[in-house]
Write a structure and sequence with these properties.
single chain; alpha+beta; about 30% helix
Length: about 110
């Protein structure tokens, strides 16, 4: 028996990355976004958060909306910043209201 369409599945059965059945193009991440993303990463190839907050140079692999598009943010360059994957994951989790774990130092205490 085929499974139910995503919209009819119980919320617990839906994957967290499922975006109401919309494609990346329908959510505003089409060819224009790919071009803008490449431009941002070319202009600033390092993670802004790692550099500013921790003083560590880390390659940026993600482009983050400072104010999320879902909250009215735009693709304007002033609303975009390059981040490494761990920083982007932390920021995205915080945007969704998730708590983050404290970073633990080599001595076993929170940093």
């Amino acid at each position: 028996m085929p499974s139910k369409p995503p919209a009819l599945r119980p919320a617990a059965a839906r994957k967290p990355w499922h975006h109401s059945g919309k494609s990346r193009h329908e959510r505003g991440y089409g060819a224009a976004w790919d071009k803008l993303r490449k431009q941002v990463l070319t202009e600033e190839p390092t993670c802004r958060v790692c550099l500013v907050e921790r003083g560590v140079v880390t390659a940026a692999t993600q482009v983050d909306h400072i104010k999320p598009k879902a909250d009215g943010g735009t693709d304007d360059r002033s609303n975009l910043r390059p981040l490494c994957r761990p920083c982007h994951d932390r920021k995205s989790a915080a945007d969704r209201g998730h708590r983050t774990r404290a970073e633990i130092g080599v001595d076993g205490w929170p940093v």
